[in-house]
Design a protein that fits this description.
- About 35% of the residues lie in helices and about 20% in strands.
- The protein is globular.
- The chain is an alpha/beta fold.
């Protein structure tokens, strides 16, 4: 409100933002932050405050503004076959089978949506029953407005064979449609990407598309988290990795990228340093049940021991749930050391579920589970 023409109840930054919006209601968040020389997260908090104080009527003044978090990458149908006995080659094996919705970027997005964060998915699908199944499961939690269905293409599918204990024996991925996730495709979504506040991208995109997203993130100062997916996809990363705020990678993927075999703990730390030297701001290297390593530009190494899990059911969603838990912690503005614990927590409880994304997951539950996990840092 105003008294004698003077706006009250606002601090100086809020007044500056409000004045700019009055002058040009179509200014994007990126442009507002640039004009005011503040970062994007600060600008978003100011806009939220102005909305709560009713100086702004929602957020419609920002052109084509997507959700807070933008997940870019694959969506697919997962078909999981768990062996009842030891695998025998060249013959029929008895299994229990399930069909679920998956895809790295999609899984991360659903996790985040279930934890009550605002998230959009940018992906491609075929015009088929698999896409309809994906929509039915995902749409309650994720904005799918930016998912395009292509004619003459099949929705991606992933098939995994697990041993009796739930560990993966082998997996098969039909991801041909991901070849269409190229630089030209990304160009169509520059505005939406530039106006989000956090990007999570898997490496199912082509290298040209990966580089475009990295350049956009670096230019707009948007935190970018990258999930490699698999060893064969490591060649989708360029040599210059500036623009990647977080890289969540496992030991095998690191060995593949650098052609450097890890034989000792010193080798493990060396590989982490190689990621930082390439321009990554924060790297987490996982290795199953062994301690994971976190390293940033200060090069202070922190190790975390994932707790022993006596109720293991299916490890398929472990990595994606870890990433989502980490992002949740970062979006709640926890320190990286604490955000990593949220990643460990979400992964720990997800592998106890037969679903790639837990159906009971919500913000209150993850907070309660975090308290039960305790401290996993071992140095």
């Amino acid at each position: 409100m105003s008294v004698g023409g003077i706006i009250i109840g606002l601090n100086s930054n809020e007044k500056r933002v409000l004045d700019l919006i009055k002058q040009d209601p179509f200014l994007t968040q990126a442009k507002l932050a640039e004009i005011l020389s503040i970062n994007r997260s600060t600008l978003a908090n100011i806009v939220s405050s102005l909305t709560q104080k009713r100086y702004l009527q929602g957020r419609a003044y920002i052109v084509n503004e997507p959700a807070d978090i933008f997940c870019i990458g694959a969506m697919n149908i997962d078909r999981i076959f768990q062996l009842k006995t030891t695998l025998l080659k060249a013959t029929s094996n008895p299994v229990n089978s399930t069909v679920t919705v998956g895809g790295v970027a999609r899984n991360v997005a659903e996790n985040l949506g279930r934890m009550e964060l605002s998230v959009s998915l940018l992906s491609l699908a075929g015009i088929d029953a698999d896409f309809e199944e994906i929509k039915a499961v995902t749409q309650p939690f994720v904005n799918l407005d930016h998912v395009k269905a292509l004619e003459n293409h099949n929705t991606s599918s992933y098939t995994a064979i697990l041993d009796e204990t739930g560990q993966m024996e082998v997996a098969f991925a039909d991801m041909e449609i991901c070849d269409q996730m190229n630089a030209e495709w990304i160009t169509n979504y520059h505005l939406q990407i530039e106006n989000c506040q956090f990007i999570a991208m898997d490496l199912n995109l082509t290298q040209s598309a990966v580089e475009q997203v990295m350049n956009l993130a670096r230019k707009q100062q948007i935190p970018l988290l990258v999930i490699p997916v698999s060893g064969p996809k490591m060649n989708h990363l360029p040599e210059n990795l500036k623009g990647i705020t977080w890289l969540i990678v496992n030991q095998d993927e690191s060995e593949e990228y650098f052609n450097h075999k890890v034989k000792t703990e010193d080798d493990f730390l060396t590989v982490a340093n190689l990621w930082i030297d390439r321009g990554v701001e924060n790297v987490i290297i996982t290795r199953g049940t062994k301690p994971l390593l976190y390293l940033n530009q200060t090069k202070e190494a922190l190790y975390y021991q994932p707790p022993n899990n006596p109720r293991l059911v299916d490890v398929t969603g472990a990595g994606d749930s870890f990433v989502a838990g980490l992002i949740y912690g970062l979006k709640k503005e926890y320190a990286p050391s604490e955000a990593i614990h949220y990643g460990i927590t979400n992964s720990y409880y997800t592998v106890q579920s037969p679903s790639t994304v837990r159906k009971n997951l919500n913000a209150q539950l993850i907070e309660e589970e975090r308290q039960m996990i305790g401290n996993c840092q071992i140095n």
